[in-house]
Structure formats: C-alpha cells, structure tokens
Amino acid sequence: MTAKLPHLRVRTRRIDDPGELLRFTDPLSPTVMLRRGDGVVGRGCVWRASFSGPSRIADARAVWRELVAAAEITDDAQVPGSGLVAFGAFTFSAASGAASVLSVPEFVVGRRGGVAFVTQICLLDEVGRADLDVHLPEVAAVGADASIELGEGVMTRERHRTAVDESLARIAAGEFEKVVIARDAVGQLPARTDRRHLVRRLAAIYPETWTYAVDGLVGASPEMLVRVLGREVAARVLAGTLPRGATDAADAAARAALAASPKNQVEHRYAVESALRSLGALDSHDDLQSGLTASPEPFLLALPNVWHLASDIRGTLPSGASILDLVEALHPTAAVGGTPRGIAIAAIDELEPFDRRRYAGPAGWVSSAGDGEWVIALRGAEIDADGAVTAFAGGGIVASSDADDEWAETGPKLAPIADALRG
Fold this sequence. Notes:
33% strand, 13-stranded mixed beta sheet, globular, ADC_synthase, ten-stranded antiparallel beta sheet, Isochorismate synthase, Chorismate_C
C-alpha cells in the first residue's frame, strides 16, 4: 500500500429509526455487519486498499491510523459504529493469492442500543470547506433472486479422507496436536442477482449469529473473533460440534453427547488456551491478562443446525493497543487452524488442495474511535463479481478423530450458506 492517502471529511448525525438496515446497502455488493437487526451497513466506496503476505493485518492497521489522523470527523451520534468506519476482510493464510481488503464506504447506516444514525464520507478536496448535507442513501430497487445448488469442489470425499488420515499420522508422530481440515463446495449465481436476498435469509434463519458481507465474502458466523466497545474486549470461542437432532429426544441426545465427548472437549480446550495466550501476550504490563476471564466451563450453544461447545472471553484493551492489534494476535485461532499454530497452518497449506481465500479469516469493521467487531468468516462463501460461489466448511482433527465423522460434520456447517443459496 504505497498510494498517497486521501483526506476524508466525515459527518455523522442521529436519525429516526430507518427500519431494515439491509435495504440501504448495494444489491450486487452488500457491505453488512448485523446481529438481531442491529449493527452497520455500508454503501458505495470512498477509499479501498488491499494487503497481502504475513504483514497484511499490521500494514492495514498502520494505514488505518494514518487515514484516521488525516480525517476531519464530526460525530453527533457517539455510539459504536458511528464516525469514520472501515470494513475489512483478511485472508486466512499469509500465502493466499486473494486480497485482504480495508474499505471506507460513502455512506454508513447503523443502529445500536436504540440509537440510529447515518454517516456520510467524502474526499475533503471534493467539498472544500463546505459542510456535507448528510442524508440517507437511496434505497435500491429489489433485484432478481436466484436458487442454486452447491456441488462438490476439488476436496472430494476421498481426498478429504486422505488429508484426515495424513493429519492423524502426523498427530501420532508428535508433529502437532490439532489441525483443521476444510472442504469446498461450488456453484454459480446469475451475475445480476440481488445478493441482499441471500444476506436477508441468513439473518432471518440465524438471528443469533453475526451476518456479514464484505467485498463479496458473505455468511452468518457464530464466532466473534474479537469485539471492542470502549476499552471492553470480548471474544467467543467455538470448537466442538454435533448436528441438531430431528426430534426433541434426538436433539437432547445430541446435546448430551457433545457435552460428554472427550474428543470435542479436547478440541475446545486447545482453542480456548490458544486465545488466552494470544490476548495475554499483547500486554507487557499484564494489564489485559489481569482482567482476562473465560467461561470456567464451555457452555452449549444451540444454533438451528448444530450444537457447539462455546466459551466467552472478556478483558480490557491494553493502553496503546487497537482492535486490529487484537485481530492480528488472535488470527488464526486454534478453532480454525490448529495447535501449535505455525506448524498447523503450514500443514493446512500442504494438505488442502485449494486456497482458503478469506474463509476462516477475520471479517468486520473498525471505527476511528477504536471500536470494532470482527468475526471469523465461517458458514459462508466467497461470491465473485461474475456470481461464482465457493463455500467452505472444516473440522478439527485431533488424535481421536474419525475420517467419516469429520466429513459428516462439514455437512451441517455448509448448510447455512447452502440453504440460503437454495432460497
């Protein structure tokens, strides 16, 4: 990122509740971070930058700081998501050929804690010293919907079995303790499909997740990588999964089986310990570590399609740190990568026959005030400009894993995006 950074003029004002936020975003490239109908959506683009390689998150953080420092910001709302906001999505792997992006919309419309607001952003040189006439963006007409089926990708069932068996052999040899192996599924949307239909279905069926759409990456993630509101830090760790039962009795049995599963408990413990180490290592004065707490035992999180073992982590943002510092420290978590981190990631690059792109990477938003919400990009897909769809789902491999069980686990994880695409 070497281009000269622009000077931005940013104006936020409170508005009456505008109703559904999703309708204010772009039909072909929606920008969204919503949960239970609240959050932020973006429209248009004033500035965009792409990053790559091992320093992609650090480079984005440095550019964002410069952009904020040069901006002229008036924020009459003063709630999380108001003021200058950028949306971002980073690749899972430093070796990925996909772009990690950070972009600033022309408009941001949001709602938080009963306060609704609109932000308008422009290049300072375009408006001189005159004030912006801040207004809501026009609502685009509802476009065409589509129904498609996802088909098998390059990671066939046999290739998946081979990758899992190789992972188990390496675990037995002491190379690593856990690695996450994913598979892909592919499809093709008509290029002019209004992708807000897809986002709307995900939000309706999975209201307890964070519905995200950034730069063509779309999904409904149950896992908050990290959130900062004020100086309060929160993260949610999910590791350990079983499908929901078809009847009440079968569902109760699945819940009990997950709670009692040694394999899933071990997988979950690796993920929580990894997150605690990553967050604690950020602060040399132990400020964050001293206030860091995790759920004493994992709790069972019910989603419409699966049960998850979950733990919530809370703490305080270290002095001088930003949410992008936390994103960099936490990614990739053991829940989507493995343990030890570096060795597991190298094994994933070797064992998976595709580029994960932004799947299982951080996706979210950051504000000039330092707030932000970044999810792990799960239960979703990359949708290219021409409508090509690539969805991913994975599972954690530990010593007691079984290849057939691991393949079966990916089905319910693909279901949210597959069902939404099916309409």
